[in-house]
Specification:
With 153 residues, this protein is an alpha+beta fold. It has a single domain (3-126), classed as Small protein B (Small Protein B, Chain: A, Beta Barrel), CATH 2.40.280. The chain contains four helices and nine strands; from the N terminus they run E-H-E-H-E-E-E-E-E-H-E-E-H. It has helices at 8-13, 28-35, 87-100, 128-152, and strands at residues 3-6, 14-24, 39-40, 45-49, 55-59, 62-63, 81-84, 103-112, 115-125. The chain has a seven-stranded antiparallel beta sheet. It has a two-stranded antiparallel ribbon with strand order 3-6.
């Protein structure tokens, strides 16, 4: 399993509640572009369409054009891409997002065997003061590590 892309802003902007693994519906040249590292998950999110049988779509994920494929007419790098989840997981996520106001965000894209998998998470948006507390905690941990190194060394 090798990680191809990570959404670093997700842990900063959201409190992660539950993680899920989903497949992606991609074209052949998009798969090659992703494996070449031409993907950006920053600012992307998951939406649900459909009434009784919702379907999940990844919105605003940028997959660049695969250069060796040649010029492609009308290629949209940020098009919506369908996610493959089990029906029970889809219904659970759809219910939590509509009833509780939570958001589904992509965390990382990785390979699992020969398949591409997307780790998505159910998250609650952090307030500004939560982000400040996270920064203070990270700085304090960094300072504590350097102080213990100085004392020991």
């Amino acid at each position: 399993m090798s990680t191809l892309a990570v959404n670093k802003r997700a842990n900063y902007d959201y409190e992660i509640l539950e993680n899920y693994e989903a497949g992606l519906v991609l074209t052949g040249q998009e798969v090659k572009a992703v494996r070449a590292g031409q993907i950006n998950l920053k600012g992307s999110y998951v939406v649900f369409h459909g009434g009784d049988h919702p379907q999940a779509f990844l919105i605003n994920a940028h997959i660049g054009h695969y250069k060796p494929a040649g010029p492609l007419a009308n290629y949209d790098p940020t098009r919506s891409r369908r996610l493959l989840l089990k029906r029970k997981e889809l219904n659970h996520l759809f219910g939590r997002t509509t009833n509780e106001g939570l958001t589904v965000i992509p965390l990382k894209l990785y390979t699992k065997g020969s398949l591409l998998k997307l780790e998505i998470a159910l998250g609650r948006g952090k307030k500004k003061y939560d982000k400040r507390q996270a920064i203070q905690k990270r700085e304090w941990d960094r300072r504590r590590r350097t102080l213990t190194k100085q004392i020991r060394g």
